[in-house]
Design goal:
mainly alpha; LysE family translocator; transmembrane helix
Length: 203
């Protein structure tokens, strides 16, 4: 991989990780409702789960979807349905529980990692990384390098969203203000489906 291609990939990974999407909307809400410390498993699950997804796409899973297009359709509707469910959960989250004794709980590491497989934006990012920035020479090595580098860039990027949410907790301690915020986050999460699902005709 040339230095120019590597720098281009770093920019792609940074921009795609920082821009709004399902993961970042959920982390912003998680930061508000649970604080950054309790959101760390969620952050790690996103980055490491996405790393596995990128590697899987590069090592052959993407070709499976090309051979069986109906799997893309299944993924689209499964992802959309799950995002709607998550939006409903966010909209109905109660007042932040500083002591961590409330009924609501943040995403676990495994939940966040598994979510990447039904997250349409994650698939677009993974396919873009493999098809655009992975040289064919020493392909397997490059796929693994791209996967790890993407995770390294992704973790602090998504962490900024959780940190931003955590900083907003003091202004959203009022139950009514928090309910308005969570409802707005739920609406934005649903809205994030539109550009993702229609982007470049992928789905």
């Amino acid at each position: 991989m040339t230095t120019e291609l590597l720098l281009a990939f770093v920019v792609f990974a940074l921009v795609s990780s920082l821009t709004p999407g399902p993961n970042n909307m959920m982390l912003l809400a998680s930061g508000v409702n649970f604080g950054i410390r309790r959101s760390i498993p969620h952050m790690l699950g996103i980055s490491l789960g996405f790393m596995v997804l990128v590697a899987a796409v590069g090592l052959g899973l993407g070709q499976v979807f090309e051979q069986v297009p109906v799997l893309h359709t299944i993924l689209r509707y499964a992802g959309a349905a799950y995002l709607l469910y998550l939006a409903w959960k966010i909209a109905n989250t109660g007042t932040p529980d500083v002591e961590g004794s409330g009924a609501a709980t943040p995403f676990s590491f495994m939940q966040a990692a598994a979510f990447q497989w039904v997250n349409p934006k994650a698939w677009i990012m993974a396919i873009g990384a493999i098809t655009t920035y992975t040289p064919h020479e020493n392909f397997t090595t490059n796929v693994l390098m791209i996967s790890v580098l993407f995770a390294v860039i992704n973790l602090p990027s998504v962490g900024l969203w959780a940190a931003a949410g955590s900083l907003m907790r003091r202004w959203l301690s009022d139950a009514r203000a928090l309910r308005i915020f969570n409802t707005a986050m739920a609406i934005l999460l649903v809205a994030s489906l539109y550009p993702i699902l229609t982007d470049s005709g992928l789905f």
